[in-house]
Specification:
single chain, mainly alpha
Length: about 425
């Protein structure tokens, strides 16, 4: 048999085998991929008591942390002991912080101002990234106009407030202006936002987007789309904070609330090669640490370990010894995971989860945990307060805390939180 005929014979046999295999494969059934969970759309109107509870709860957390923002907890304990009340904000004014020096107890920072800013946005624009950028630009331009008006007066001191307004919003306006110009300009501006760090920008306002959403996944998507200033997986974290806030109005079990987040991943971060979903890993590891912390036992009375534990308790600690053991271990875990900057999105996210896990639905416990840990404590406490306030409602918030925050905001800061809540409720009708 010639070489040519041999090759033709082999080719014929191969074709016959291929046809035979194809015929058999046509009868082969592949195992189906899992269906994604169908989300039930919840369009029920939010309870007015919960809306007010979320906003005032957030303001309480913000105000409780305002006096010690960016402190380490050793300095907090030396100065105040364990903080469980509102303390005067004895500090220098700053764009992101308080807008005047040494404000009275109950005063807040930009975490509360963002709630009012977002309300103005919702009332005047259909929420989407283009409109959000337009709104931010408009606020910046209005701040410039105020400065021009004040500049015509004879008093230099009158320029302080409009300059503070501009300094607060200019980082954001630089990015939002670039966003409207095109992708290249936007990427360059976003990479400069607060030094290019993975800041918690979107987390400052993502809870408000939850209030205008129909389900937890929509809340995530809205926050993700509005996270124009976030780097990397900080956008995923902003989305999860929005979903967490949405579910807080509807889920009252602490464990169930946190566990609900595992089923929300519309951008499929979990499919990422090599690293998976970092925000979910943080969630899982922090929950596991909280569970392990609860298993720790009180040392034998009189032992060296017991004496060391007693000495570590800060002055004015209002809870049981077992609570302090749990809290101390959770703080130790958070210390090992600190980022280079305190307002890193991953760090804020981790402390938030720890605060909610420690609190188990107790508003005061959760907010105090966040405040007394230190670092960017007003931001963590503001989100914690929003979530827990949404869960329990305004009526169940601590009477003295909520009244002091309401009075200080209205009479000193010019922010009427009760009127804000009514406007948010009107939006949802």
């Amino acid at each position: 048999m010639t070489s040519s005929l041999h090759k033709k014979l082999l080719l014929s046999i191969g074709l016959l085998l291929l046809i035979s295999c194809k015929s058999k494969n046509e009868n082969q059934l592949l195992i189906p991929e899992p269906n994604r969970l169908k989300k039930e759309i919840n369009t029920s109107t939010l309870n007015d008591d919960q809306i007010l509870g979320a906003l005032v709860g957030s303001a309480i957390g913000d105000a409780m942390g305002a006096s010690t923002e960016m402190w380490n907890r050793e300095d907090i304990y030396k100065t105040y002991g364990y903080i469980s009340t509102l303390t005067p904000a004895i500090r220098i004014q700053s764009p992101e912080g308080t807008w005047d020096h040494n404000l009275p107890a109950g005063s807040s920072t930009d975490d509360t101002r963002w709630k009012l800013l977002m309300l103005n946005y919702f009332e005047n624009f259909k929420p989407n990234p283009v409109n959000f950028s337009t709104f931010i630009n408009g606020y910046y331009e209005k701040s410039l106009e105020l400065l021009k008006q004040k500049n015509s007066s004879n008093s230099i001191d009158e320029l302080e407030h409009p300059i503070e307004q501009i300094d607060w919003i200019k980082e954001w306006a630089r990015v939002s202006r670039a966003y409207l110009k095109g992708p290249e300009e936007y990427m360059l501006a976003k990479d400069r936002f607060y030094g290019g760090e993975m800041s918690c920008a979107g987390m400052l306002y993502s809870s408000t987007l939850a209030m205008i959403s129909n389900d937890a996944e929509e809340a995530y998507t809205k926050a993700y789309e509005h996270a124009l200033f976030d780097q990397g997986y900080a956008k995923d974290i902003s989305g999860l904070v929005s979903s967490l806030s949405f579910n807080a109005f509807r889920i009252h079990s602490a464990d169930s609330l946190l566990n609900s987040l595992y089923f929300i991943d519309p951008m499929r971060f979990q499919d990422s090669r090599l690293v998976g979903r970092i925000a979910q890993d943080i969630l899982l590891n922090t929950q596991n640490n909280a569970r392990n912390a609860r298993l720790q036992e009180i040392p034998i009375t009189g032992s060296a370990a017991y004496q060391s534990l007693i000495r570590s308790i800060p002055k004015n600690y209002p809870y049981e010894l077992k609570d302090w053991i749990i809290q101390k271990e959770m703080y130790r875990f958070l210390d090992t995971n600190q980022r280079a900057i305190a307002f890193h999105a991953a760090e804020i996210w981790q402390i938030l989860i720890a605060s909610l896990a420690f609190a188990e639905g107790d508003f005061n416990k959760g907010v105090e945990f966040a405040v007394n840990y230190g670092r960017d404590n007003d931001t963590v406490a503001a989100i914690t307060g929003f979530v827990l306030g949404a869960q329990i409602g305004f009526d169940r918030l601590d009477e003295s805390l909520k009244q002091q925050v309401l009075d200080t905001h209205k009479n000193v800061l010019g922010i009427d939180l009760e009127a804000m809540a009514k406007r948010y409720a009107e939006l949802l009708k």
